[in-house]
Every structure is written in C-alpha cells, then in structure tokens.
Amino acid sequence: MAASTARIVTPNGRRYMTQLCKHWAHKFEVVYDETQGLVPFGPDSRCRMAADDAGLTLTLEVEDSGQMERMQGVVIDHLKRFAFREDLGQVAWAPVG
C-alpha cells in the first residue's frame, strides 16, 4: 500500500479534522475523537488524521498508487472548503516510508 503525508500548520486543526470526519461519516464508517480520525474510503484506501494545537497531519494510504494524486486532491479540496476563512497555503505531500 502506498502512503503519503502532509502537515497543515493551523491553530484550527482539531476543528477541521472534526468537520472532515463528520462530513465523511455520512458515507463511510468514520472513527474519530478530538485528536485523531480515520476515514476508510473503501477497502483499498483510507485517510488517517492527527490534530494538535499546532495543526493537522494527514496520512493517505491507497492500494493503487496511481490513485494517490487524485485522492490527495479530494482530501485537500474538502479541507479547504472548511478552512475558507484561512489561507492554508500550498499543501505539500511527501511519501511515507
């Protein structure tokens, strides 16, 4: 499974993570608390989130590495919709492992 991670520096990381989890809970079996979340997009892809006072860390795991860029865009597009009052800048993803 391919994995990539991105760190978003924001004082609102917990709020954004909760909003993302609640949003996707309508379609997926999302599990989250105030510091971490897991969104299983399907049997072959998921997004793990960890929030703290300084920001939000996203880790995207996909079985088909050809889908990585598309899934990164989906996650960031949704995040930016919730963070419309704040400029999150360019989000840089880095491979894990």
TrEMBL record:
Gene3D superfamilies xref list: Alpha-D-phosphohexomutase, C-terminal domain (3.30.310.50)
Q: Which InterPro entries does the UniProt record give?
A: UCP028291
Q: Which organism is it from?
A: Azospirillum oryzae
One matching Pfam family: DUF2218
Q: What is this protein called?
A: DUF2218 domain-containing protein
